[in-house]
Design a protein that fits this description.
Blueprint lengths: L4 E3 L2 E6 L7 E7 L11 E5 L9 E3 L2 E4 L7 E4 L5 E4 L8 E3 L5 E5 L8 E6 L2 E6 L2 E6 L3 E6 L2 E6 L5 E6 L5 E5 L2 E5 L4 E5 L5 E3 L1
Antiparallel strand pairs: 1-2, 2-3, 3-4, 5-6, 6-7, 7-8, 9-10, 10-11, 11-12, 13-14, 14-15, 15-16, 17-18, 18-19, 19-20
C-alpha cells in the first residue's frame, strides 16, 4: 500500500496490511528487482502499518502509517530509526528545503490538522487545515471555510478569503484553484482576489 519510490537505481517499496502482522520494507535494484548490491535490502518490521507514498529524504525513508505517526528508516539498510512527532495520516510531502508537510488525521471530536516539520521539530501548524499548497515563500491553506496565505519565513498571515465549501486546492502559475462540492474558484496567490468562480 505504499507505491514505489526510486532513487539512484534503487526502488523502495513496502508490503504491509495489519499492525499485528509483520511488514516488509524493501530496497531492490530498480532494473532487475534483485537484492544483493549495496543499498538493497528486505527487512521485516513488527508493529508497523506502512501505507501511503514513501518519501526519500537524503539518507532516510519516511513512510506514513495511516492512524499513527509516519516512521523513519535508514535509506541504506531499511532499519527503523524512529517516527515523526504528531498524529497519523497518509498525505505527506517533502519540500525543496527538506521540510515534511503532512496532514495529521483526526476524528469528529478532534479535527485533523496540517503540520510542517523540520527534522522532528514542528515549524508550522494549521490546526483546522484541510489541504495545502507549499511554495518557496508561502503556504496556501484551506481552513474550514477560509483560504489563506501564510509566509513561510515567519508563518505570518499574508491574506485570507472566505470560499464556499472548499475541499481541495491546486496551483498553476500564480493562480490557486479551490475545488468545492459543485464548483471551482480561481484565486490570485498574490492578494487573494477571486479571478473567477
Amino acid at each position: 500500500r505504499t507505491g514505489v519510490a526510486v532513487r539512484d537505481g534503487i526502488a523502495y517499496l513496502a508490503a504491509s496490511l495489519l499492525p499485528w502482522r509483520e511488514s516488509f520494507l524493501c530496497g531492490v535494484d530498480a532494473k532487475t528487482g534483485e537484492i544483493g548490491v549495496s543499498g538493497t535490502f528486505s527487512v521485516e518490521h513488527e508493529d508497523a502499518t506502512l501505507e501511503g507514498s514513501i518519501l526519500i529524504a537524503e539518507d532516510r525513508l519516511i513512510v506514513p502509517q495511516g492512524r499513527v505517526a509516519p516512521l523513519l528508516f535508514e535509506r541504506e539498510s531499511g532499519e527503523k530509526i524512529g517516527s515523526l512527532p504528531g498524529g497519523g495520516g497518509v498525505t505527506i510531502v517533502l519540500t525543496e528545503a527538506g521540510d515534511v508537510v503532512r496532514a495529521e488525521g483526526g476524528r469528529e471530536a478532534r479535527p485533523g490538522q496540517i503540520g510542517v516539520f523540520r527534522g522532528k521539530e514542528r515549524v508550522a501548524s494549521f490546526p483546522r487545515g484541510r489541504a495545502i499548497v507549499v511554495r518557496p515563500s508561502a503556504y496556501y491553506v484551506i481552513d474550514q471555510e477560509k483560504l489563506f496565505a501564510a509566509d513561510r519565513a515567519d508563518n505570518q498571515l499574508r491574506w485570507q478569503r472566505t470560499v464556499d465549501e472548499p475541499l481541495e486546492i491546486i496551483m498553476a502559475g500564480e493562480t490557486l484553484f479551490v475545488g468545492g462540492r459543485d464548483h471551482v474558484t480561481a484565486v490570485s496567490s498574490t492578494d487573494g482576489k477571486v479571478t473567477w468562480s
